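Attaching the record inline, Q. Sequence:
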Amino acid sequence: QVQLVESGGGLVQAGGSLRLSCAASGRTFSMYNMGWYRQAPGKEREFVARIRWDGSSTNYADSVKGRFTISRDNAKNTVYLQMNSLKPEDTAIYFCNTVVLGREYWGQGTQVTVSS
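Structure, as predicted:
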């Protein structure tokens, strides 16, 4: 059983920054690949970024490349999403995600709202 808890969302003006955190339960967090997804109102959930279990590799959606950075601290069982140069179209609920032994886990999400 894996529990994921996101935090750090909020209201920010366009051009601003936020850092999201996702705290994970479990002694084997350092073995999990982790990802961030988002879902805007009326839209399907979409991939944002992922990071390999050891932090050696990252991938980003084209829409966030150069603005968002995913990172992790395995000592703290936490993955981060640093979001810079935010745009109104980044407004969404952001979810943390992992797959362990073929089972997918999601957090409850954290709301990010970017005003123009």
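The longest strand covers residues 92-100. The CA atoms of residues 91 and 113 lie 5 Å apart.

More tomorrow.
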